[in-house]
Amino acid sequence: MIDLSALWGFTLIVALLTVTPGLDTALILRTAALGHRRSAWGVVLGIQAGTLTWGLLTSVGVTALLTASQVAYTIVRWAGAAYLVWMGVRMIWTARGGSASGPDGMDSGDVGHGDARGPRSGFQRGLLTNLLNPKVGAFYVAVLPQFIPAGTSHLAMGALLTGVHVLLGILWSSLLIGFARVLGNRLRRQSTRRLLDRIAGTAIAAFGFRVALGD
Q1: Cys bridge to 10: 19, 67, 140, 147, which one at CB 3.0-4.6 A?
Q2: Count H helices, E strands: the chain?
Q3: pLDDT above 90 (res 4)
């Protein structure tokens, strides 16, 4: 039987976490603002696939092993930090004119990921960003077990709670993408695109440094 108090308690926590501006928000808004709607949805689905993976691994106790192993955690932390810093610096470099627009008017920095308008490259970017972020794993290890009542299936309850998190993430992301679409052409002006790349790139690179330093 589902423990409704645990369900609502977890929902409240992840709802607040979801709407708090952070790495996911910056990545989704930046992609959607450039007019790459399909790629933005790919990013959303990639992020949520990563969230689901962390939740399920926590439910069966795998991430606890990662947290317990200092070597494994350090490897994941440094790999994630390197990826985030690389992605952030790449955005900043593009904003400074370090790479020109491609023939279709897209930044060549995005072309390097394949079709910037397609969901596949966005999915890969969102998935890697999430899975290489040890802070997501640490959150699930610390929080999720507290909302799994004794006597219930850890996997079933963990999957349910993670599903709530994923659903909230998709709903919030749809609002972000819709917001970017409403502003439309304003956000796709060259000056605005460069500003967005500077802001998003700085935020992502700074987050990568924080991960590297273990803050």
Answers
A1: 147
A2: 10, 0
A3: no
Domain that holds residue 192: 4-213
Burial class (CB in 10 A: 0-12, 13-18, 19+), 159: middle
Give the confidence band of 15 by pLDDT, cuts at 50, 70, 90: very high
**108-112, 173-177, 210-214, range with greatest mean pLDDT:** 173-177
Give the H/E segment covering residue 82.
helix 70-95
Instruction: Pull the structure tokens for residue 50.
Output: 């990563």
Element (H or E) spanning 106, and its range? Answer: none
Read off the tokens for 9. 């308690």
Residues 149/156, Cβ–Cβ less than 8 Å: no
* Amino acid identity at 80: G
| Rounded Cα–Cα distance for residues 69 and 75 (Å) | 10
SS3 category, 155: helix
Distances (CA, A) of 118 to 49, 111, 114, 137, 145: 17, 11, 8, 28, 37
How many angstroms separate the Cα of 29 from the Cα of each of 41, 86, 151, 214? Answer: 11, 19, 41, 26
Calpha distance 165→48 (Å, rounded) = 8
Of 104, 125, 102, 100, the closest CA to residue 113 belongs to 125
Number of domains in the chain: 1
pLDDT one-digit tens code per residue, 18-56: 888 778 888 898 888 777 788 999 999 999 999 999 999
